[in-house]
Structure formats: C-alpha cells, structure tokens
Amino acid sequence: MSTILLVDDEQDLMELYTDVLEVMGYQVVQAHDGVEALEKARQQRPDLVVTDWMMPRLDGVELCGRLLHEPGLEGIPIILHSSRRAPRIPGVRMVLSKSSPLEEFEDAVAQVIDEAHLEQLPAPTSLETSLEISADPHH
C-alpha cells in the first residue's frame, strides 16, 4: 500500500482529500504545514507528497526545495495544489488547481504513483534479457 503525505492548512480540504485517497486504497499521513511535513517525511518516507503552496511556517515551494535536497527524501514525487498559478518548481511532477474536479485530483495521484513505481523497477540485466530471448520459441 502506498503512503501519501498530504500537506494543507485548510482542515476541510484536508479531510476531503484524505477521504478520497483512503477510498482509493492509499495510506494517508497528514501535516498542516511544511515544518510538520518535513518531520513526518523523516519519520516515514512517503511514496508521494501532495502539498498546498500557501501555508504558515514553511510554504509548499520551500517544502519542495527541502525535500529535494534532504538525504533520504530526495526523489519523492510531489504534486503541488494551489489556488494560484504556480511557476515551474524543481521536484514537482504536477501542479493542480484547488478548484480542479476531484476526478482530476484522483487521476493525478494515480498517475504520479504509477510513474514513480515504474521508475523504481530495476532495469533488466543482460542475463535476464538473453534468457527472455532464448525462451522465445521463434528464436
């Protein structure tokens, strides 16, 4: 089961997104700002971070930068959601508007998780490749 770190200071939106993600089969860890998110990510590395941009103490853009450079946390895929148009931010795989339909949010999460899992699969070794070729009855 994939773990998603959900970061937002708006409690109503946090509850809605948590419910949606849990119905989709994900484990959700909540944080209400970037400082709390970093602490929780250090305790349990998530498979995905979904973060708001505008938050107290440490905003989403700063959180993305810290995750990108924190040993052991670099490479975690990030979805940034915001009520404002966001610039290109290193480490962010996708930017969603907070006014996006829930289906778009669900699709984005599933796509980023799937892509991240594919990236983690080991590349086949030359032995595995030659075994696949020699197992082909047409060769």
Distance between the termini: 39 Å
Query: Would you tell me the overall average pLDDT?
Result: 84
Counting DSSP E segments of at least 2 residues, the number of strands comes to 5
- Radius of gyration over C-alpha positions, nearest whole angstrom: 18 Å
User: What's the tally of helices?
Assistant: 5
Q: Please provide the ordered H/E string of secondary-structure elements.
A: EHEHEHEEHH
Poorly predicted parts: none
Shape: globular
How large a portion of the residues is in β-strands, by DSSP E?
Answer: 15-25%
Report the major sheet: 5 strands, parallel
What percent of residues adopt helix (DSSP H or I)?
40-55%
Strand order of the largest sheet: 2-1-3-4-5
Structural class: alpha/beta
How would you portray this structure in words?
The protein is an alpha/beta fold and 139 residues long. Helix content is 45%, strand content 19%. Strands 2-1-3-4-5 form a 5-stranded parallel β-sheet, with helices on both faces. Helix 2 runs parallel beside helix 3 (60-69). It is globular. The model has no long low-confidence stretch (mean pLDDT 84).
